[in-house]
């Protein structure tokens, strides 16, 4: 789950980055792998006639079975386990029964889990059936590719701007736009920790990356312009021009030998 970068008051609650021990990284990984299992399981529900609520129900049951707790539910007043965003919905879409999937829909699922006091947070975007056009296929391909380009730069001695620049370069080279109003974040004993991890930036700028930092890197990409609007529910962010969007996210730890992805099976 992401919070707008412009909500400076929220981010102001975090005034430092706390480096994690190997033991703490292991605990984050336990929570993150539950999230990864949820996303893997939900892939089969990205099908014609299924609903976002089907995903919500399955995710809630699976998280409980694994001994975790939904990290999003109740966080800042958010009422659900998942965020399920469809087509022009960028993030924070409600997993509603009336959100019935149709062929060609682009469905982004964002999930968070807390277990033993440590958080995992990841997201993945699926297509329902076949892509309607080549642009949609390329949108998902390049958004996921940009995630791994960002992760590749998450090494001790680099800077936050190197991550953002890698994501932005990959996305914009394909003719798409990086969402600016929402950013990634640190993760650990809170769902959102310092630092903010923007998906755009200048090489060599920003905070120095150090061993023990744990980050949620998460490109949110629009096929049109990056401006977004909030729906009346106060949560769902949609592209202002109605263009489709995609969202991929991993939790990573910066280790001596480079970035380690914590949120994959």
TrEMBL record:
SUPFAM superfamilies: Creatinase/aminopeptidase (SSF55920)
Cellular component aspect of the GO annotation: cytosol
Name of one Pfam family that matches: Peptidase_M24
Assigned EC number: 3.4.11.18
Sorted UniProt keywords: Aminopeptidase, Hydrolase, Metal-binding, Protease
Family per record: Belongs to the peptidase M24A family. Methionine aminopeptidase type 1 subfamily.
Name listed for the protein in its UniProt record: Methionine aminopeptidase
Species of provenance: Mesotoga infera
Species classification: Bacteria, Thermotogati, Thermotogota, Thermotogae, Kosmotogales
